[in-house]
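Reopening this one. Same input as before:
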Amino acid sequence: MEIRVQQEPFGAGTELDAFTARASGAGAVVSFSGIVRDDSGRMAEMLIEHYPGMTERALEAIAQEAVARWNLADALVIHRFGAMKPGDQIMMVATAARHRKNAFEAAEFLMDYLKSRAPFWKQERSADGASWVAAKQDDEDALKRW
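Same output, byte for byte:
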């Protein structure tokens, strides 16, 4: 299991190749990459803040839960912080399991957690000013299935 909170960009293809190569015994690998999205059409950048140490511990705990709950061979969570432009990769989740159902469900669980509960704070910046991104009810509702 690998958890990384980093400022630097990453290559999803490179990360997935390395993850797949070390996922011995797995019959399925599922990955998801999140990209900075500009819904307003005016965002210049998104700033993501976090508390070092606390964030990694929280992500490690939820990843350990996913590994145990879905009997994963491996899990990867990468989440960036700092200033990012629309179109930049913001995060990646990968899961490996003997069977695809477990890999898919674990990946969805991790993505839902990252969207709603992970200790990151997002601020959208544009020529009009800056505003913090509020939690969305749809994201909160997605957690109820787990």
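So the earlier flakiness isn't reproducible anymore. For the record, The CA atoms of residues 6 and 127 lie 27 Å apart.
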